Amino acid sequence: MSRKLVFVGPPGVGKTTLRKIFFEGEHSSHLLKYSLKPTYGQESIILNLNEDIGIFDLAGQENKKWLEGKGKKVFHDAENIIVVVEAKALFEDIYNFTNKIIKIREESYGFTYITLLVHKIDLLDKGELVIKRKKINESFKNESNLSVEFTSITRDYFLHTYSVFINILSAALSEFATLKKFDSNLLRTIIKVLSYFEDKNILSYNDLQEKSNLTNQKLNDIIDILKKHAHIEAYDGDGVNLLMITHEGKKNYKN
């Protein structure tokens, strides 16, 4: 699978409805009229748009597993975590749930983008929407790699919601989408790792780990990112795991 998008949110907020409309082509008027059965476990589909995109829809009834247990691994390597919350929910509940996702992202070294969808805004009157929009935007304005959208599948808001999902797909399909979304700390660490190739084009994995002082997991994550974008190559040299910086890596990261 080339790209990965993950839907997560409390039960009954409309995650599966959004998935079915914007990724499976179901008609919004039908889904507005008939409620869907709750999702159990995770449902996934594969879209083929020049490259495969996996769409994972996580059951809200099992959020304890996704957010606290081994199920957190479902977020690994995601291009975008799409957090869906209901507009009528208490601000504190929206804030706390979103922060749980932010913490999970930090555990995986923080390079996954988060799109917070404050959904079913048609259930709020205009005054309520203005207040909630201002409060939520203010709360997350300094959070790297996170955007907030206010959505609904009703007629008045459908085109805007459609454009939100077009942007999500476009970003996921962009060759350098993940690099553009890195926060500054991660980008500095990547540059630091590549700076160790200044004098030698080839380093062993052990040498690089010793120089960088990173954990195995963090160093492996960075190596995976750089290999994905053809900035380094890995090969075996007489049983030693060797890493070589490429011309592309030098061009993009070396001074």
Automatic annotation (TrEMBL):
InterPro entries documented for this protein: Gtr1_RagA, P-loop_NTPase
Keyword set, alphabetical order: GTP-binding, Nucleotide-binding
Record-linked SUPFAM superfamilies: P-loop containing nucleoside triphosphate hydrolases
A Pfam family this chain is assigned to: Gtr1_RagA
GO MF annotation list: GTP binding
Keyword Transcription regulation among UniProt keywords: no
Name under which the protein is recorded: G domain-containing protein
Annotated organism of origin: marine sediment metagenome
